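Progress narrative, work stream C.
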Amino acid sequence: MNLSKTIVNKPTTVLIIFVVLAALGFYTLSDLPLDLLPDMELPYVVLMASYPGAGPEEVEKRVT
């Protein structure tokens, strides 16, 4: 008996097998670790310049 005859003769069994395999697939998919955005510490530098009475362009040119 070949596979196609078995599938045609016993559709309920094939449906149950398919549902069990699909449920197992969804269970394992939900159990997979997904790390699209890992925790990272990006380096950064902060520069703070105080120049009273000056505009931002002047501070940028003369101080920084």
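Work stream C, second folded protein:
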Amino acid sequence: QYLNCQQLSDVAKSTSEQLTSIALNEAIRPMIIESLNTLTAIGTDISACLSSVSRVNKQNALLRANDSLESLSQKIIETVFFPEQVILTQITARWRHLFTAAGGEMVRSEALKPVVNPYTAGNPVKHSNFIGREDIMRRLEELWQSSGQAPSIVLYGHRRMGKTSILHNLQFHLGSDTTVVGFNLQLVGNIQNTGELLCMLAISLYDSLPLDQQDQLQEPNTEEFAAHNPYQRLRRFLGKLHTVCGSQRFVIAIDEFELLEELVKENVIESALIRFFRGLIQNYPWLIMIFAGLHTLKEMQQDYWSPFFSSVSSIPVSFLSAKASERLIIEPAPDFNIEFEPEVPKNIYKLTNGQPYLIQLIGRALVTYYNRQVFEEGRARERRFNLQDLSTIVESSDFYQEGNAYFSGVWRQAETSLPKRQPHILTALCHKALSLQEVVEETEIRETEVILILEVLLRHDVIKRVDDRYGYAVELMRRWVEENMALLNKLN
């Protein structure tokens, strides 16, 4: 039966049938039984190969089967006697031919279609594509592993550092007894008052529940929140929620939390809401809040943030390490199959300093460039990126246009943040790194003000200090400023 296999599916089908219940130990020598059992295990790997959707999983299963077959072939020669040795040797030879043909077909079929681009530039990264933030996830797990009161968190960091991706991946790290409720303030719409905001928060909690638990609660209603004290209304809802959910813990993930301050300044919501949030996290042990934004709470300008200082822990989200950056570059997805020359990841790290958005942007541009060369222009090339590919990408005007959201966002933040005149110092630093005294001379700004500005830029990862000289933290950002300096100076 094994010898008659004509294709890979025959191997999977024939080995799926278990050996019959005859007294094999008496009828067949032990090494024959062991060989048959090994062939059955090989068939299981072939079944996995045929049923897998992922190319990598298919290849791995086929490789396991082939390795096992090679080991069995050698063992048959050494330990199995005539006449079974002849039949088993014929089986392994036939199967080896089938495996080799299948492997070649995988390679040919993969080469005939464009590479699926695994790099994500701009949108949150999820699941297996979420790489390089294991340290922050471990830190959150440590802070929240106890069953008692767990601290709420502020995640702060520079633009496009991956804060939103961290929020989106929390659920996969916290276990089934914790429910993460996303609450992005950019998506709350045109709210009119504090009551509407609190009602939307209650609805987000309600929507996170399974249907059977939703049936035990009444869906929050905007009119009811407007007609009654909205703070009291939310507390009543939380009380009912806890009754229904028992030991379940909720993490409310509030993204772009600085928008709260803007809503307060515009008199849309009350400043008392911030103090109310502090009361929630202190009095409901099963409720945790995690805020993600650009600033630490100490940088927020209004006094109503002060009560939060003693109630939350702050975790910075900064650049990826060199090791994490390399992993993101060369393995952005489990089934990515283009290689990099060794110097390419190192140079990408030098250009980005581990800025995850820019790494994703470069990777995305490289894959697009490869697909265009091979499938649009019909060029023959290695399935490998080299330094010339990287140079072509980062010197292209298209690259900076695609990355404009990042580069201009950093610049606008410098323009609108306190202290003022940050852009003047960024312009002065775009040609080379400068000492404190050289910055003062270049900008003609008082030294005390320069020191304050440099501290803010350092804290927000816009610049770095090396040997008492200040320069851009991200080389690509420096190049963008240098390229657009005339226009930026005109705007300032």
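The radius of gyration is 30 Å. No further action is required on this item.
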